[in-house]
DNA sequence: AAATAAAATTGATTTAGATCAATGGTATTT
DNA sequence: AAATACCATTGATCTAAATCAATTTTATTT
């Protein structure tokens, strides 16, 4: 149940086995079924979730009821509404499981305590955040620069997992395209090869 | 020369005056004139720049020679190409002064040393990054969701400084619009009031 | 396994914003 | 202060992607 977490932390910092045992105690394991929500828009996000197994997504809903996906999260990734989680404000995102998933939840206070108990955890969190920030910049740039086809092609290269495991209409939403446009883009690409 | 830095750090963490004196020694002051570059696309970004005075911007240039602005940075903000700065890869961004500016530069090694010397500096950096990440998410969401007019209106509300101090064609670039479209959007808004 | 719901595809049409082009303004530069 | 380069505005036209609508395919549920 903690394999992915051990791997994720170990990739970024050095932690003894004893310290990892301490680390584990701060997390709350939780299973969540496909289509169940971990967070509803408007609620306060009380957890930062680490994914041991499965896929989740976070999304906003606009006035017309259309969903806009902010993030997909797979095994070994984290997902939360950061501003709600850190500042205690009402969330703008809904977080929902795309597959049956196994999570490790960290409350805001547990997170603070864990960073105090194991200073490398703060470093780990900073390193994760750096990567997440860089990835988001790339996404902004793609949104400003790229055509529909370029956006899709870049995604297939950078995140083949998303293409393989996520329904197409959700990929469209993530890229800021309609499902129809994405379907046509894929057809074009296939015709050319 | 260090007023803005003292303010920025003081807003996030607690630092004694003596520690701040230590902190100062890690920075290299630098003046840069309007239109001069701090970083050219393709070079390795050796500095994380804190802005004491002035405005800078970071942007990518596409195949057609068009510039796409990733970030504006004012007094009290930081600017860098994070992935180039941290990983030593060639930068995708150019960083350039919009006005004559005064900077405090931190090299990657100075930054590491500073975080070792003053652990609160690591926390300060993490807190900055958290805010930057949340702001970027908001920008992605706006890019996915909003019309040209909504993008502009949101910017006027969230960042009136940008509207007031940055040329219009750069605002257009930042929003992913052409200068013509932004001009028309502004006209529409003015006609309505 | 049949029934139902959800997702993907394809076609016809519309539209928001881009592009092309010209003019008037506003800064820099000499 | 004149000259030059850069910016913002306005108009006409074009186009990539959205919308509307129908059909086929694939998943879920009973």
Secondary-structure blueprint of this entry?
Two copies of one chain form a homodimer.
Chain A: H1 3-12, H2 17-24, E1 28-32, E2 37-39, E3 47-53, E4 56-61, E5 67-73, E6 78-79, H3 82-87, E7 94-97, E8 101-107, H4 108-117, H5 119-145, H6 148-158, H7 160-165, H8 168-175, H9 179-191
Antiparallel strand pairs in A: 1-8, 2-7, 3-6, 3-8, 4-5, 4-7
Chain B binds a DNA duplex (30 and 30 nucleotides) through residues 147-148, 167-169, 177-184, 186-187.
Pfam family, one (chains A, B): cNMP_binding
Domain Cyclic nucleotide-binding (chains A, B): 30-116
Organism (chains A, B): Flavobacterium gillisiae
Oligomer: homodimer
For this structure, what is the CATH class of the largest domain in chain A? Answer: Mainly Beta
Number of strands of chain A: 8
SSE string of chain A: HHEEEEEEHEEHHHHHH
Give the integer mean of the pLDDT values of chain A.
96
Determine Rg of chain A (CA atoms, Å): 18 Å
Number of helices of chain A: 9
How many domains of chain A? The number is: 2
Estimated helix fraction of chain A? 40-55%
CA distance, first residue to last residue of chain A: 43 Å
For the largest interface, the chains and their residue counts are: A-B, 27 and 27 residues
Uncertain residue ranges of chain A: none
- Backbone structural class of chain A: alpha+beta
Overall 3D shape of chain A? globular
Spatially, the strands of the biggest sheet of chain A line up as 1-8-3-6
Major beta-sheet overview of chain A: 4 strands, antiparallel
Pfam families (chains A, B): cNMP_binding
InterPro entries (chains A, B): cNMP-bd_dom (IPR000595), cNMP-bd_dom_sf (IPR018490), RmlC-like_jellyroll (IPR014710)
Keywords (chains A, B): Kinase, Transferase
GO molecular function, one term (chains A, B): kinase activity
């Amino acid at each position: 149940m903690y394999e992915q977490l051990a791997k994720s932390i170990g990739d970024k910092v050095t932690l003894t086995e004893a310290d990892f045992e301490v680390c584990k105690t701060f997390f709350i394991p939780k299973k969540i079924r496909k289509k169940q929500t971990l967070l509803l828009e408007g609620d306060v996000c009380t957890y930062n979730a680490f994914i041991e197994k499965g896929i989740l997504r976070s999304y906003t809903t606009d006035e017309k009821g259309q969903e806009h996906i902010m993030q997909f999260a797979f095994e070994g990734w984290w997902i939360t509404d950061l501003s709600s989680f850190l500042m205690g404000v009402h969330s703008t995102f809904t977080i929902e499981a795309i597959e049956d998933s196994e999570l490790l939840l960290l409350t805001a206070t547990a997170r603070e305590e864990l960073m105090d108990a194991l200073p490398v955890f703060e470093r780990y969190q900073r390193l994760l955040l750096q990567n997440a920030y860089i990835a988001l910049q790339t996404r902004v740039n793609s949104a400003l620069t790229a055509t529909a086809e370029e956006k899709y092609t870049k995604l297939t290269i950078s995140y083949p997992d998303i293409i393989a495991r996520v329904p197409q209409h959700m990929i469209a939403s993530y890229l800021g395209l309609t499902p129809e446009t994405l379907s046509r883009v894929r057809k074009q690409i296939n015709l050319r090869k």
